[in-house]
Amino acid sequence: xxxxxxxxxxxxxxxxxxxxxxxxxxxxxxxxxxxxxxxxxxxxxxxxxxxxxxxxxxxxxxxxxxxxxxxxxxxxxxxxxxxxxxxxxxxxxxxxxxxxxxxxxxxxxxxxxxxxxxxxxxxxxxxxxxxxxxxxxxxxxxxxxxxxxxxxxxxxxxxxxx
Length: 162
What we know:
Elements: H1 2-17, H2 21-28, H3 34-39, H4 43-60, H5 64-73, H6 82-98, H7 102-117, H8 122-138, H9 151-159
Helix pairs in contact: 1-2, 4-7, 4-8, 5-6, 5-8, 6-7
């Protein structure tokens, strides 16, 4: 038990130096494991953001390679949470540089900021962006405003429902 408490304290110290004191107090001090944190991930949130981003990318004619570049940009920095901020900035930069995909970049940035604020990490961001790529590949064309889109509403549209 002492070894476990010592390991948790070491993790807390490392996190504190990375300005993650809030997460440390919330997850280390109460004995919550990383698997328990992962179990608390709101997968509907990831799926809905993925649907919005994928539909927006399709409607704006974003190239599939750009979605792959977003996923790859998560590995530019080692920080598990900081990577979300880097990828959000990269999305905005790419839209500006290429002159296309501004709505997609805005949605990516909003999504990654929300995930960051909720304490999510690269793994969750990678799932969300991977799902966005699936939606992009599955949706032949999307008309409308993706900002309020959910996966369920997109599936209803594609199935010809309400």
